[in-house]
Design a protein that fits this description.
Elements lengths: L1 E5 L3 H12 L3 E5 L3 H8 L10 H10 L3 E4 L2 H7 L2 E4 L14 H13 L4 E5 L7 H15 L6 E5 L9 H6 L4 E4 L3 H11 L9 E4 L1 H32 L3 H9 L20 H14 L5 H13 L2 H9 L8 E5 L14 H11 L3 E5 L4 H8 L5 E3 L3 H5 L4 E4 L11 H7 L4 E4 L6 H6 L3 E3 L12
Parallel strand pairs: 1-2, 1-4, 2-3, 4-5, 5-6, 7-8, 9-10, 9-12, 10-11, 12-13, 13-14
Bound molecules: nicotinamide-adenine-dinucleotide (NAD) and uridine-5'-diphosphate-glucose.
Length: 447
């Protein structure tokens, strides 16, 4: 099939590349000229494991190309995927300006039947707005050309995006049109061979399914963070509790890791957007608000614990950070807990000495050059001469550490472990002042 993808971010680029890899011909369009120029040069603007070689082989195979030209993009595919950003507006609602601008572009330039596929995460009712926008643009040209709009939310996780896209649990398509069902089946056929993954539903249910999935996962995390905070007060180890409850198949082990709060470009904005949608239909979203409030508090955990460890005085201290990305295997720092910590440390007059395997460039892009942000080449340099170490991201390489060595590097041997990587007992036996999240230790995540 010939497919156009609008947006070459985490979702658009992965979707386009995987669909090309499955044998389709894909043209990816972005308004960011710099991004497209880099992609045309074979440079991948984001870090996503496995993506670079897949992009290169599909470009070389003639199945994947990039453009900034809207006319070429609209003219290319019968399927027109919208995979642009839907960032939070000031009131927490999803900002649909980029989605609707693509819809307008399609309406302005289409000359034959198109299926417009909403892959961006969008509130219930957006497919109707996309339809109206396309129709208005066509009317403006005095044209009447047939088109359909369907919802096809994406469930990939950054860091595992290719595997999630190609081996996802389900492929959801919101449509009532038989023709769209047939075309979407054909599009995903290469990834639907082992068992039936396609789930067709009405468009509003598909739109809500995406938010419900993210809100459920975020709820699990906030729930565990609440239990962790209780465990701290009750002298229990939340890691043992996690294993204890995860073993119940009704609960399961996934997404119940307590820590320094969920970040990333999805959970924070999507929980807020769903809560906003609820208030628009006169429903008070008590649970969603609590999930968000618990997370907001949890993201302050790292700073709260550090401040307690240093009797509230962090001025002039140097704090080592291992990890800046919101989770491992990505360079993405959107809403990362490390940002909440760094900003609080700077406010308190401390210097940050940080290392992340992939997110350093992104960190510099966000914060620029400043005296109180020292980015170093590896985790060893990060702890050199520092007063304390904070673990913000559970990169695999951070898990193996010689505690005796670590103790020698830090002037005050304080470790605040936001991801519970280490055995508290072993760390304490080595003479470190080790504070995890919910591990029955003396420092509290929040008041
Ligand atoms: N990042 C994820 O893990 C993930 C997973 C599932 C769903 N989503 C959802 O997918 C959508 C995209 O997320 P993302 O993380 O890929 O965003 P992103 O910010 O990484 O990329 C968005 C891209 O869209 C481009 N763009 C903006 N306006 C455009 C236009 N008019 N035409 C063409 N391109 C345009 C931007 O230049 C940018 O390159 C969001 O709605 C998000 O919630 C994201
Ligand atoms: O047990 C857990 C699992 C995750 N997290 C945190 O939760 C955040 C999000 O992690 P993850 O879900 O792995 O990453 P995302 O790439 O944000 O993916 C989520 O958001 C995407 C965008 O909507 C969806 O497509 C995915 O299905 C959904 O998992 C990160 O800060 C993690 O550290 C925890 O604190 N504890």
């Amino acid at each position: 099939m010939k497919i156009t993808i609008f947006g070459t971010g985490y979702v658009g680029l992965v979707t386009g590349t995987c669909l090309a890899d499955a044998g389709h011909e894909v043209l990816c369009m972005d308004v960011d000229e710099n991004k497209i120029a880099r992609l045309k040069d074979g440079e991948i603007p984001i870090f996503e494991p496995g993506l670079e070689s897949m992009v290169k082989s599909n470009v070389a195979g003639g199945r994947l190309d990039f453009t900034t030209d809207p006319v070429a993009a609209v003219g290319f595919g019968q399927l027109q995927f919208i995979a642009v950003g839907t960032p939070p507006d000031e009131d927490g609602s999803a900002d649909l300006q980029y989605v609707l601008s693509v819809a307008d572009t399609i309406g302005r330039h289409m000359t034959d039947y198109k299926v417009i596929v909403d892959k961006s995460t969008v509130p219930v009712g957006t497919a109707d707005r996309v339809s109206q926008t396309v129709a208005a643009a066509l009317e403006g040209r005095g044209e009447s050309i047939e088109f359909d709009v369907c919802s096809n939310p994406e469930f990939l996780k950054e860091g595992a995006a290719i595997k999630d896209f190609t081996h996802g649990a389900r492929i959801i398509v919101g449509t009532e049109s038989e023709r769209v069902m047939r075309l979407m089946r054909e599009c995903y056929a290469p990834y639907n061979r082992h068992h039936e993954k396609m789930m067709f539903m009405d468009v509003r249910a598909a739109e809500l399914t995406k938010y419900a999935a993210n809100a459920m996962l975020a709820t699990k995390i906030s729930f565990m963070n609440e239990i962790a905070n209780l465990a701290e007060r009750l002298g229990a180890d939340v890691e043992q509790v996690r294993r204890g409850i995860g073993s119940d198949p009704r609960i399961g082990y996934s997404f119940i890791y307590p820590g320094c709060g969920y970040g990333g470009s999805c959970f924070p904005k999507d929980v807020q957007a769903l809560a906003h949608t609820a208030t628009e239909v006169d429903y008070q979203p008590e649970l969603l608000n609590a999930v968000e409030a618990v997370n907001f508090r949890q993201k302050k955990t790292l700073y709260t614990k550090l401040a307690q460890a240093f009797d509230g005085d962090l001025k002039g201290r140097t704090i080592a950070l291992w990890g800046l990305a919101f989770k491992p295997n990505t360079d993405d720092m959107r809403d990362a807990p490390s940002r909440t910590l760094m900003e609080a440390l700077w406010e308190a007059g401390a210097t940050v000495q940080a290392f992340d395997p992939e997110a350093m460039k992104e960190c510099r892009r966000i914060y620029g050059e400043r005296d109180d942000l020292v980015l170093v080449a590896d985790r060893v340099q990060a702890v050199k001469g520092a007063d304390a170490l904070v673990i913000c991201t559970e990169w695999k390489d951070f898990r193996i550490v010689d505690f005796d060595w670590l103790k020698r590097q830090l002037s005050t041997p304080v470790i605040v472990d936001g991801r519970n990587l280490f055995d508290p007992q072993a760390a304490k036996e080595a003479g470190l002042m080790y504070y995890g999240v919910g591990r029955g230790d003396s420092l509290r995540s929040c008041s």
